[in-house]
Write a structure and sequence with these properties.
With 190 residues, this protein is α+β, with helices and mostly antiparallel strands. The chain contains 5 helices and 7 strands. A hairpin with a 4-residue loop joins strand 4 and strand 5. InterPro entries: Acyl_CoA_acyltransferase (IPR016181), GNAT_dom (IPR000182).
Length: 190
């Protein structure tokens, strides 16, 4: 199998004041927390958003692994809906010392380029900052961070920086050159 160089950028906010708002998209776009852990729904979001940008690390997860992850205290999935249809999601994972990682964020291909992404990212980041309010016993958030890479959408880095995230690390590593999986085999042209 061949390898390709992949650049990964890590970004952070260290204060809620770092968060820069985004304009709300036109139309009936709502963001709702998926409060019931659902491996089926989370896998659908993961595969549908990441299928054309080679998200593959969770495709082999079993149902039990998804359930275990989603039931961890503080793990949250916030879903954007456009007129009732899932358009994208942001997944938050609390970590030690008041850090919250935006583990996954993105839109299904049909909803990209419609100003939903900036709105969803701003909303999800605000929820990372107030996560401890929903989870008694959690340390208040002191830092929100994420990473993006050269395989992600062409506007990803710009969106993160426009929301107030600052770069703190860059790495380049060789990764296997995998075929774009799509949400199911053959869903996207290679």
């Amino acid at each position: 199998m061949s390898s390709v160089p992949v650049t990964t950028w890590s970004l952070e906010q260290t204060s809620p004041a770092d968060l820069l708002p985004a304009a709300a998209p036109e139309g009936d776009v709502r963001i709702v927390r998926a409060e019931v852990p659902s491996p089926e729904f989370s896998r659908f979001l993961y595969a549908s958003v990441g299928g054309d940008i080679r998200w593959t690390d969770r495709l082999g997860w079993t149902y039990a692994r998804w359930q275990e992850y989603l039931e961890r205290p503080g793990v949250e999935t916030w879903v954007a809906y456009d007129r009732g249809t899932p358009a994208g999601f942001v997944e938050l994972e609390p970590q030690d010392e008041g850090a919250v990682e935006i583990v996954y964020f993105g839109l299904l291909p049909a909803f990209r380029g419609r100003r939903i992404g900036g709105h969803l990212l701003a909303y999800g980041t605000a929820r990372a900052w107030d996560l401890a309010e929903r989870w008694p016993g959690r340390t208040p958030t002191k830092r929100v961070w994420l990473h993006t890479c050269s395989k992600d959408g062409e506007f990803a880095m710009d969106n993160y920086q426009r929301r107030g995230f600052k770069l703190f690390d860059t790495k380049v590593e060789l990764e296997p050159d995998v075929t774009t999986p799509g949400p199911w085999p053959g869903a996207y042209p290679v």
